[in-house]
Amino acid sequence: MALQASEKGLNWFQDIRFGMFIHWGLYSIIGKQEWVMHTDRIPVPEYEKLVPQFNPVRFNAEEWVSIAADAGQKYIVPTSRHHDGFSMYDTALSDYKVTNTPFKRDPMRELADAIAKRSDIKLGFYSSLLDWHHPAYRFRSESGLAWSDYIAFLHGQVRELCTNFGDIACIWFDGDWPHHALDENNAYFEAGGSFEYDKLYDMIHSLQPDAVVLNNRHENPLPGEDVQGFEQDLPGVNTAGFNTTTISKLPLEVCMTINDHWGFSANDSNTKSTPHLVHLLVRSASVGGNYLLNVGPTALGEIVPAHAARLRGVGQWLKSNGESVYGTRAGAIPPTAVTVSTRKGDTHYLHVLDYTSDCVTVTGVPDTVTKARLLNGGAAIELERRDDKTVLCIPEAQRDTIDTVVVLT
Ligand code: GLC
Question: Do the bridges between strand 329-330 and strand 252-257 make them parallel or antiparallel, or are there none, so unpaired?
């Protein structure tokens, strides 16, 4: 029997609903997202020339954490090592790491320290399964190393993440796909064997009983995976082309970019608006999912100001409406084109995201519901039952331009 995260950890994870994903690494210097080593076919010795250039003098862990806090985000998941193989913390298992750059500091440690000062945010880690730089992953015939050497490295790093940074929220794996989809350039993709998930997950659950394991495999969860993840799509939707539309009974998480890329992309200004972000957050919550929203900081260590501003906008909305998101579970009232719902026991939160007429009509409101009021301000709203339909008319002056939440009790 595979170990799972504790009940406490699972409940906490579902209660927090909103997190900050951070893709940051050597690739941020180039500014063409985190896959640039692969997309531009940069050989290892060339890519390594980024190491002496990495000096994010404007990095300030407290500031990143305060942006997340202002946004209402409750967990922060930075890339500890992405596919390029460069470790963004002071790992004992490789010299290819951030503390060997002119920057010298360990930003993961600094984030952990900044987060430790607060009680409302936890740190989690993204960890890449594949590694385009490690000789035991990519260059076994040249290096004489074995796949088992790579597994020792991967598992050893995860052990470090689980022991050196206090209580963590999650380990977030990515890059499993070499097992089922080989690229024409196998050098980048070929895995030499199993990632030994049973052992890996058991180790995490033994060292960090409250932390959840998520593996971005786009398939049905394996034993030991606590959360089912969806990438760039809401659960059940598959516009990205690689998401499964099968939704398991596990807690869910939707990860998304704030623009069109994960790692810093100098030419990407397609930033999602604050209302759009709120809608994606509440749509995720309405199906029982967390929303892990990514930012890709610059090589100097800054979260792009336009991204910070949008995030703070979400936090503003959450200040008066957070009750309808945090601590909720999937809604009992079926969604319509303009509404979704969340719930806490017998309290239902109807999120009105748009108005096609003065009144909204929903079906499936539980019989126990007799009263309606606005969450923000508490004004009573008239609730009219017409057969199986419930009609709620919200005066224009009382509407929230982003999402008007009606509490049904
Ligand atoms: C995809 C991307 C990867 C990114 C991840 C985040 O798997 O390929 O670079 O880290 O999504 O969800």
Answer: unpaired
Q: Ligand 1 atom 4: the closest Cα is on which residue?
A: 262
pLDDT digits (tens, 9 = 90+) for 190-214: 677 899 999 999 999 999 999 999 9
Question: What are the start-end ranges of the E strands in 45-191?
Answer: 75-81, 122-128, 168-174
- Outline which parts of the chain fall under CATH 3.20.20.80: 7-327
* Cα distances (angstroms) measured from residue 163 to each of 160, 173, 208, 209: 5, 17, 8, 12
CB 205 within 8 A of CB 7: no
Sequence-separated (6 or more) residues with CB below 8 Å from residue 68? 20, 76, 121, 311
Between CA 395 and CA 33 the distance in angstroms is: 45
Whole-angstrom distance, CA of residue 91 vs CA of residue 161: 9
Task: Pick the atom of ligand 1 nearest to 82's CA.
Answer: 10
Angle, helices 61-71 vs 107-116, to 10°: value is: 50
Protein residue with its CA nearest to atom 11 in ligand 1: 231
**Which residues form ligand 1's pocket by a CB distance below 6 Å?**
23, 34-35, 174, 216, 231, 255, 262
**Which of ligand 1's atoms lies nearest the C-alpha of 83?**
9
Identify which of 231, 257, 256 has the alpha carbon closest to the alpha carbon of residue 244.
231
Q: Say how many Å lie between the CA of residue 257 and the centre of ligand 1.
A: 10
d(CA 174, ligand 1 centre) in Å: 7
pLDDT tens-digit profile of 62-110?
A: 999 999 999 999 999 999 999 999 999 999 999 999 999 999 999 999 9
Pick the CATH number of 331-408 from 3.90.190.20, 1.10.10.10, 3.40.190.150, 2.60.40.1180: 2.60.40.1180
Q: Which two tokens stand for residue 143?
A: 């290096």
Burial of 190 (0-12, 13-18, 19+ CB in 10 A): middle
Per the listing, tokens 């060339």 go with 46
Q: Where are any strands of DSSP class E within 203-288?
A: 212-215, 228-231, 252-257
- Does the pTM surpass 0.85? The reply is yes
Residues of the chain with CATH 2.60.40.1180: 331-408
Give the residue whose CA is nearest to atom 12 of ligand 1.
231
**CA–CA dist 247, 224 (Å, integer):** 17
CATH topology of domain 7-327: TIM Barrel (3.20.20)
